[in-house]
Amino acid sequence: AQSVTQLDSQVPVFEEAPVELRCNYSSSVSVYLFWYVQYPNQGLQLLLKYLSGSTLVKGINGFEAEFNKSQTSFHLRKPSVHISDTAEYFCAVSERGGGFKTIFGAGTRLFVKA
Amino acid sequence: GAVVSQHPSWVICKSGTSVKIECRSLDFQATTMFWYRQFPKQSLMLMATSNEGSKATYEQGVEKDKFLINHASLTLSTLTVTSAHPEDSSFYICSAPDTQNTEAFFGQGTRLTVV
């Protein structure tokens, strides 16, 4: 079984500042890793995913994440945030070969202040 | 990318009635779909795996007689909330992996309010 821990429930940050949203996972098998964003009363939008290959993954809207196998982490970063980045961010895992049955972390609320 | 369409996007129903939510893969076939529930300010919890041509697989603690899942075709799965109660009010989201299995695509969600 897999589990995902998002270490921060809320992250307030000023506009144009860098941000890191932390994610650690636990699994006895190889996994795929994802970050999703959810705006109020909307569905999920995929920011980026790690399937294999380079451990630094670039996604949409200037976000990137780095897969660290030894630390079982997949932290999300953005060098300069905008007000429009205010949203809920979910880290998620799915087992390789498991048909993308996805387990989500509790979520991190990113709040960008002017 | 592939598109998963969910309908309706929101629904209000009276206690005791049943509500059906549809999840369609528009441009690909999905032998498997997943249903999630999200309570306000919480994460998405997997409810069940919908399998075309066979019974759904429910996660622990999810009542299969209350949340009926039917995977009618390779592009359609339905979730029926039977005898709905106010505590069933939630955001329900489905997902389907694409045929090349590079990721799961999510529907836009259905906001269910039971009054």
Structural notes for this entry:
The complex is a heterodimer of chains A (114) and B (115). By secondary structure, chain A is mostly beta strands. Chain A is built from no helices and twelve strands. In chain A, the strands form three sheets. In chain A, strands 2, 5, 6, 10, 11 and 12 form a six-stranded mixed β-sheet that branches. In chain A, a hairpin with a 6-residue loop joins strand 10 and strand 11. With 115 residues, chain B is mostly beta strands. In chain B, the strands form two sheets. In chain B, strands 2, 4, 5, 6, 9, 10 and 11 form a seven-stranded mixed β-sheet that branches. In chain B, strands 1-3-8-7 form a four-stranded antiparallel β-sheet, with no helix packed on it. In chain B, a hairpin with a 5-residue loop joins strand 5 and strand 6. Chain B starts with a strand and ends with a strand. The model of chain B has no long low-confidence stretch (mean pLDDT 93). At the A-B interface, strand 5, strand 6 and strand 11 of A face strand 4, strand 5 and strand 9 of B.
Radius of gyration of chain B: 13 Å
Separation, N- and C-terminal Cα atoms of chain B: 37 Å
Q: Biggest interface and its residues per chain?
A: A-B, 21 and 22 residues
Give the oligomer, counting copies of the same chain as homo and different chains as hetero: heterodimer
Percent range of helical residues of chain B: under 10%
What is the H/E order of chain A?
Answer: EEEEEEEEEEEE
Structural class of chain A: mainly beta
* Unreliable runs of chain B: none
